[in-house]
Specification:
about 200 residues; Rossmann fold; seven-stranded mixed beta sheet; 7 strands; binds 5-O-phosphono-beta-D-ribofuranosylamine
């Protein structure tokens, strides 16, 4: 892969951004993957603090900025190849879907198609899993299309849900799966595409 140009990944997050940080750290010594910028839709999102620590420029783009092409312009200025949603809550607008066909990947904290769709995010997902007395939950990594949580599934991993588990217990197990698998799946997809 000596002469292959580096692949540039934009990370999008709405909140804490612990997955985003875990992904950047995983690729720290990877010669072919770079993170030119991080986008958040809230100024107060903790991901901005993490971005500073990681030395990656981060920008706040509002919902309308995603819809009116401001985000797209920024991503193109940074020559971004792939977009990874790591806890990003806004719907991805058509302008991004068209500019990055099959190049936008999301992680969902449940086993899709169960517990997906509008309103199914963060703690709501884990509360629903416990309320439905599910015996397992997990993660789904998938391509993003025009409908929430409906794009082609790339990878799933499961964890048990015990009768005594609280939504917080399930969230902790799911986060652990996210940290373990998300960076490696990104590497397989992104670097696989690089060598094709
Ligand atoms: C993760 O559970 C992710 O699957 C979901 O939002 C959470 C984000 O956590 N979409 P963090 O901001 O990466 O800590």
């Amino acid at each position: 892969m000596k002469n292959v140009k580096a692949c540039k990944i934009a990370l999008l997050a709405s909140g804490s951004g612990s997955n985003a940080e875990n992904i950047v750290r995983y690729f720290e010594h990877h010669p072919k993957v770079e993170f030119p910028l991080i986008l958040a839709n809230k100024t107060e999102a903790f991901i901005h603090e993490r971005a500073k620590k990681l030395n990656i420029p981060s920008y706040t783009i509002s919902k309308s900025g995603f819809e009116n092409g401001e985000a797209l312009q920024l991503l193109q200025q940074h020559s971004v190849d792939w977009i990874i949603l790591a806890g990003f809550l806004l719907k991805i607008p058509d302008n991004l879907l068209q500019a990055f066909p099959n190049k936008i990947i999301n992680i969902h904290p449940a086993l899709l198609p169960k517990f997906g769709g509008k309103g199914m995010y963060g703690s709501h997902v884990h509360e629903a899993v416990v309320a439905h007395r599910e015996t397992e939950s997990g993660i789904t990594i998938h391509y993003v299309n025009e409908n929430y949580d409906e794009g082609l599934i790339i990878f799933q991993a499961k964890c048990p849900v015990l009768p005594a588990d609280s939504p917080e217990d399930v969230a902790a197990k799911v986060h652990e799966l996210e940290y373990r698998h998300f960076p490696a799946v990104i590497e397989r997809v992104v670097c696989g595409a690089l060598t094709r």
